[in-house]
């Protein structure tokens, strides 16, 4: 049996157990219907009532660990009960306000995170633009002529003819004439 099948089997067993516990909880009598008398100063637990609640004879005391609510004395005056009812009505409002406040704080934090992410992206883009601007400035400052013809351009600017430029720079006569025409055009536009 592979690991995948073992995981599926384990999940199935857990689902069956959860279903059994759910139906068992539905069958159990309500704690207020068969609650034993509480000892003053001690909270009743499910372990205290497990013998009464377990009609099928199965001992599940290790599963019964949740405390039961203490029974309310019936001799309380009517006025405090109405005040308690008013507080119970106000309590959900406070709870709803706290819940809304929590949601708004989460939304605000999400917006702050988004702004921080966008600011980081903007900073990175500004940095990229600065690098590109520096590279563009550097490229503008470089001479437009090829380094192999730069000496020929200097010689053409000094007034040498094509044959002299070709012999000194080691280029062909046609290339020297082209360099001369470019140098003349550059002088004419300047």
Describe the main β-sheet briefly: none
Low-confidence stretches: 50-57
The first-to-last residue Cα distance is 88 Å
Strand content: under 5%
Q: Based on CA inertia axes, which overall geometry fits?
A: elongated
Query: What do the pLDDT scores average to?
Result: 76
Structural classification: mainly alpha
In oligomeric terms, what are we looking at? single chain
SS summary, helix count? 6
Rg of Cα set: 46 Å
Structure explained in plain terms:
The structure is a single chain. This protein is mainly α and 190 residues long. Among the domains are: 92-142; 145-189. It is built from 6 helices and no strands. The two termini are 88 Å apart.
